[in-house]
Write a structure and sequence with these properties.
The protein is mostly helical and 151 residues long. It is built from six helices and two strands; from the N terminus they run αααααββα.
Length: 151
Amino acid sequence: MSSVFDVQKTIREVLLKILDSHSLEQLNKIPDGFTNNIIWNIGHCVSSQQLLVYKLSGLPTMVSEEFINKYRKGTKPEGDVSQAEVDEIRILLSTTLEKTKNDFESGLFVDYHEYTTSMGFTLRHIQGALDFNNYHEGLHTGVVMALRKLV
């Protein structure tokens, strides 16, 4: 299972580099033709990982319900985020990955509530959720890479 965490670590390192190389204004900018921005996509990755991995396992999330609701599927930016929120997301990219890896290795994930994604893929267990999460974060990393060329 270490490869699933290696993949997620690589994805998150890419997102961290993008966060560090863009101004707050650039992170918040929504280019013409888009409905979201760089920081929303990165926050969405954190929020979705917490829902897919922890919430569907019946475990508490590391982020607040407010955070999840702000970045969950179907939402869009409702205004600019502050530097403090960018800093929080930056920290969460690393801490949620490390905690998930440690929790998985310690056997914390026992139950999983089956869930069918909007793409029609059914998640039945934690391994499927971790695999799908990497696919999902990869998609949003691609969006972020496109957005960074337009800001």
